[in-house]
Amino acid sequence: MVFIHELSPKKGATHRKKRLGTGQGSGHGQTSTRGQKGQRARSGDPKRVGFEGGQMPLLRRLPKRGFNNDFFKKTYEIVKISTIEKNFNSGEEVNPQELEKKGIIKSSKSVKILGDGKLTKKLNVFAHAFSKSAKEIIEKAGGKVSLIEKKSANK
């Protein structure tokens, strides 16, 4: 058995840090491995993300206009029929709160049920959206499909 305090990297996996500016004899003195002159030899060399050597960066060259739908788009937590089959017993109620309790979804804001898999149990399923195939599968198994009305912040 190996204990955590006995763990160490493989031989040759780690390297000693280069000590720069430590005098001529070290091999890293004088210009400290930066070469002579030029932008990268100076202090304050810009290593910013997106810096292109003084050229106008790509992010600033691209046009920034037009419509962005992020504010209005609907995002759903997706749950497959096969997942419901595994995690629920016959006669149980499937709703966003129960799905969240069982760790199937992260948040119960908006849930969509997809018809991926088979269902053999009679379940009452509550969700914000259903695919056509999911509705058919749930009703075929003798269950009930109920849509949850989501209150819009825009109204």
Description:
This protein has about 160 residues and is an alpha/beta fold. It has a domain at about 80-145: Ribosomal Protein L15, Chain: K, domain 2. The chain has helices at about 60, 80-85, 95-100, 130-140; strands at about 75-80, 95, 110-115, 125, 130, 145. The strands form two sheets. It has a three-stranded parallel beta sheet. A three-stranded parallel beta sheet has the order 2-4-6. The longest helix has 9 residues, at about 130-140. The chain is elongated. The termini are far apart. The mean pLDDT is about 90.
Question: Features of this protein?
Answer:
155 residues, alpha/beta, Ribosomal Protein L15, Chain: K, domain 2, 3-stranded parallel β-sheet, elongated
Fold topology:
Layout: H1 58-61, E1 77-80, H2 81-87, E2 93-94, H3 96-101, E3 111-114, E4 124-127, E5 129-130, H4 132-140, E6 144-147
Parallel strand pairs: 1-3, 2-4, 3-5, 4-6
Order of H and E elements: HEHEHEEEHE
What percentage of amino acids are in beta strands? 5-15%
Task: Label the overall shape.
Answer: elongated
What quaternary form is this? single chain
State the CATH topology of the domain at 78-147.
Ribosomal Protein L15, Chain: K, domain 2
Q: Quick one: CATH class of the domain at 78-147? A: Alpha Beta
Mean pLDDT: 89
How many helix segments? 4
CATH architecture of the domain at 78-147: Ribosomal Protein L15, Chain: K, domain 2
Structural class: alpha/beta
Radius of gyration (CA) equals 30 Å
How are the strands of the biggest sheet laid out side by side? 1-3-5
Low-confidence stretches: none
- Major sheet size, sense and barrel closure: 3 strands, parallel
Q: State the separation between the terminal residues, measured CA to CA.
A: 63 Å
